[in-house]
Amino acid sequence: MALTRSYAEALDHADPLAEYRDRFVIEDKDLIYLDGNSLGMLPLVSRDRVRQVLEDDWGRHLIRSWEDRWLDLPTRTGDLIAECALGAGPGETIVADSTTVALYKAVSAALDARPGRQAVVIERDNFPTDRYVVESLARQRGLEIRWVDEAGPNGVELEALQSALDESVAVAVLSHVDYRSAALLDMRRYTQATHDVGALCVWDLCHSVGVVPIDLTGDGVDVAVGCTYKYLNGGPGAPAFTYVRGDLQVQLHQPIWGWWGRASMFDMEQGYQAQTDMRAWLSGTPGLLSLCAVEPSVAMIAEATVVAIRQKSLSLTALAVELYDEVLAPVGYGLGTSRHPERRGSHVTLTHPDAQAITRELIGRGIIPDFRRPSGIRVGLSPLTTRFVDVYDAFTQMAVLPDPAGPDDRRTGAAGPRTS
To answer: In a 3-state reduction of DSSP, which class is residue 267?
Structure first.
């Protein structure tokens, strides 16, 4: 049976999360935003919270706000993320730094905890920052990098990871959801594979946190980092989080010492003695305006529940794949995402030789996906803001775009800078 817009409308009508869309700033009602896997939309509560911090905390309360309003935000927000989105306990997650800095700290600490081992394993398809951080640390320390070969729509196979692991490996760095294909890895099995050779595993959760159920405790994860500006809707430049399993916190020591991570930070004494909990992973003063925007958004996700969010995500991606088969495959598009629901996150990647031009044309028409070189169009499906009709309208528009090489090429707009 052919898919119709009325079918998508019926799915929206039955959607138990539909009302959450009204909790976001959406001034252009005709805009179809399919890039929440790069930057989530602005929640009304986050906008109001930042205004309150600007006008009251900073504007009126001034420096007094540090002591009675701000000092515990990195730990408080970390505990909230841990409880609602990570399957982790209190005191195991902190929010601070960029994802790059958080990842550098995590991998460096994990390497220090495995002295004498001379190799690091990482996916060749991993996000550039992850690869660059590993390359930097490997150069500094004279380590070997074991690259797990490029993966397809289903991601790195467990056997490929295992073939790169042995007793010389200190750390494996893996992404839970691949930033290009949306491939979702089995966290428990892949973590266990690293533990089988005595290595530690550092997980990048940027494309899964807030949209895929995560059980860091149950899966025995050692260390994880993730951003807050995608499905957690924390805003551009919002700080990352770092998770360290409770029993490992006495063994792992982050390398960037700053006054926020020091015990008795206000004593200003000579010498560095780290905090005895996750506050030891802090370095400098956090960016409070960005940090304050994260907490209310995460609280909204906790209310909706990641389980319910995942169920809608599965339905959205299923519709996307069905529409691909019906309207896009016949006109030359390819599918760069797994057909198995349990093997994909919450975006769908389409492939086309003219992907960049197609993306520009879509943006000019008020449909915002994301281009990834060389030929990928990422369609980010954020369950709290994306409607089923958005998917239907975007895919049917893509199916009738003019040939970019032909005389009817009307592509306008610009793809703009992208985050991971």
So the answer is: helix
